[in-house]
Amino acid sequence: MLDRFDTRYVPLAIATVIVLVMMFSPGSTVPSGPENSDKVTHALMFAALAVTSRYARIGAAWTAAWLLVFAGLSEVLQGALPIQRSCSVWDAAADAVGIAIGLVVARVLARPLRISA
Q1: Can you give the pTM of this predicted structure?
Q2: Which of 50, 61, 66, 102 is the most exposed place for a label (fewest CB within 10 A)?
């Protein structure tokens, strides 16, 4: 079984663990920043997940689908769990923007390098 392990999933697994830790850490441990700076953080986290998902050879449609579900569920859980976090439609919107950015970045990175002579 280990001889068939595809290392392309490793970056996705690492990114997912980091995002889970960041999203479900108690609110009291989250550093404050300028107003709405958390939206940038959300977008960057989900862009990283989208890029690593595509690197793992998960199709663009499946990547968008699982990440949108993950974004929605994580916001609901943040509001429901006793971790002093809140559910925010705007955070989910920032997640969706990050997914779109990540898919575009992954597509650009997947293109072969063209060098003009």
Answers
A1: 0.89
A2: 61
